[in-house]
């Protein structure tokens, strides 16, 4: 059984042991221990002490950056092994997990470079007898809680900026995918992160996660996961008066206007929904197609979806792998059955795939459904699977109203050859990220986060580190004049 990383030590956690399975054939990847409530308390107390003892927070930014650059080099050295492990842990095809590892490496280098070049401020001078400064200081112990869909990318995206800001971190990975977080800890240790500054505490969200966010020494919750969990965490943070950054669910609209380049749009729509088997908060799961193109577009969409290569994640030809678990597959299928009950027509897919080797894993067919309205539950609720609903539209005013008729606002896609129309539409859509004539592109330099119930706060960008810091103003007197009352 695998040890976990508690308070700077590799040892068995005192919680119930847990297991990681390969979704392609349900074989066992590893058994690992999880944290108990005592482990949580110990890790947080040690993290707070390690943070206060100045071995990390008082390093010069360039010295902290050096550790992070070393970490990036170590990730690069081990990139293939990490991509393989990530593939086994959550079943994503190797081409995708290689991309996730590359993104983690680039994120680390970008954040380390940003840290090297970050300035504090000498604020505008408003008096002759004092200098005024604004400094950024760390918050203390950060709780980083991550989901199972892209662990290495989402974990590094939280860990590295939080550490760059001089904080300590308690990382709680998702139950199904805890292995990468432990590997990241090993490599941060090797890179020279001081002991106790990081703990990785696998375990159940409702137990271990809940204990972490309620601990009085935790000063910020950085969470990626479901909207309901995010809302519960926001309540706790409000009660405790600590800050949160919440990256939550989505039900993103993709819009194909009447002047779109059809070939490009069909490819983009398919990639936007079926890559990662739709297990992405940004999946383009609601497709609005202008009525004049609808039949032609739908026919091409079905034809290209039928040609997608569903298969074993290790096969370089595979585009669509298994979903994370049997339980998740059952949830996806339940939504599809609900769509049919609401009057939807399954144009393709709509079932589990059981042919040959696929029978060993949790494979669900890429699915396209028509005949529904945007108000139907499969258009309103996040499925987190390979299910696309196609809806025709006629005029732009009703299109905008329907696209925005969602509790979510994470992302949206627009396909048109007219950039003026795209710009106007982009400004009217209520979403944190808009892709025009592309989809699912990411950049660490560009902030990411949600409107509405898709989240609070932004990750990435030059301001990413500052979201793990607080400002301190300093007034430095330049003369000996006493304050009033004393003279
Ligand atoms: P998903 O549906 O993507 O699994 P969840 O919101 O359930 O999203 O889980 C995301 C992360 O949040 C996981 O690491 C999970 O263990 C954790 N989590 C779930 N419930 C809680 C909770 N009550 N308190 C803290 N963390 C939680």
Automatic annotation (TrEMBL):
Q: Which residues form the active site?
A: 247
Q: Per the record's keyword annotation, is Oxidoreductase included, yes or no?
A: yes
> Which InterPro entries does the protein's record reference?
Ald_DH/histidinol_DH, Ald_DH_C, Ald_DH_CS_GLU, Ald_DH_N, Aldehyde_DH_dom
- The residue ranges crossing the membrane are none
Is Nucleus included in the keywords of this UniProt record? no
Q: Which UniProt keywords apply?
A: Oxidoreductase
Which ranges carry the Aldehyde dehydrogenase domain? 10-474
**Gene Ontology molecular function:** oxidoreductase activity, acting on the aldehyde or oxo group of donors, NAD or NADP as acceptor
Recorded hits in Pfam families, A to Z, give: Aldedh
Q: Which family does it belong to?
A: Belongs to the aldehyde dehydrogenase family.
State the name under which the record lists this protein. Aldehyde dehydrogenase
